[in-house]
Amino acid sequence: MDERWLNLKGLKIRYLESGKGANNHVIFIHGLGSAADRWMKIPERLSSNFHSMAIDLPGFGESDKPANLDYTVDQFRELIVSFLKETFSPNDKTTVVGHSLGGYIASEIAIQNHDLVKQLVLVDSSGMLNQPTPILNEYLKAAMDPSEENVKKVFEKMVADPSRVPSQLVKGFIRRINLPNAKNAFRLTLANSANTQIGLKRLAQISGIPTLVLWGSHDMVIPLEHSKIFTDNIDDSRLEIIDDAGHAPFAEKPDQVSEILKNFLT
Predict the structure, then answer these.
(1) Are the CB atoms for 96 and 83 separated by under 8 Å?
(2) 260 DSSP 8-state letter
(3) Is residue 181 part of a domain?
(4) Among 141, 224, 251, 265, which is least packed, fewest CB within 10 Å?
C-alpha cells in the first residue's frame, strides 16, 4: 500500500492507500493504541476490486498528536467524515470497517452521517461498555509505562494464543507511544470511549445499512456477548465468530477474515 498524507482541520493525517481508481471504496479505522499498519495486508488484498484506505487517527500512528484535542469519539468521527468528503465526490458512499475503538467511530458515522455509508463492518467493537474492562485498564498502565515486559504481557492477554504476539508488534507500540503527546492521546481516548455508550435506540438508527459484525471467540478485551448487542439492535446485520482468535481476529486469522470480508463486500 502507498503511504499518503492529508491536511485536515489543521492536522497532518497519515493513511495507506491501495486500489486507487476502483469505484468501490473501503476505509479501515484502527483501535486504541494502534495504527493503519495493524490491518496488515487485508486492505491490499481487497484492492483488486476496491479502493482501500487505512487511516492513522489523530493521536495515533504517525498522524499529528495535538495536546489541545479532547480525543472524543465525535471528534474522531468528524475527522473521518472530513476525510471522506475531501477524498471522494459528494455522491460516493463508502464501506466503513472499524476495529474496537474504530468500530465505535464507524457506528457513529453510520448513525450521524448515514448518507455516506454503503456498508458497515464492526470488528470486536467498543461502544457499549459502561467502564473499561480489566484488560483495558492493564493496557492503560502498560501504555503509561511502556516497557517490553509490560506491553508484551498485556498483548498476550488480547490474543487466543500468546505465541502470536510478535516482538515487532511490541516494539512498534513502544516506539509510537513514546512519541510526543501520544500517551496523553491514549489516556484521553480510553477515558472518553470506554465510559460512554452508543445506546440501543441509536444503534437501531444504523438499520438500512448492511452490517457485518465480526468477533474473536476468545476476546477478553470486549467479551463476545457484546456482539449480540450489535446484531440484536441493527436490522440487516449478521454475526461471524472467528474461532481461536482474540480481540483482533484479522491479525490472528487474516486469511479467514479476508475471505469473509470479500464475500460480504461483494
Answers:
(1) no
(2) H
(3) no
(4) 141
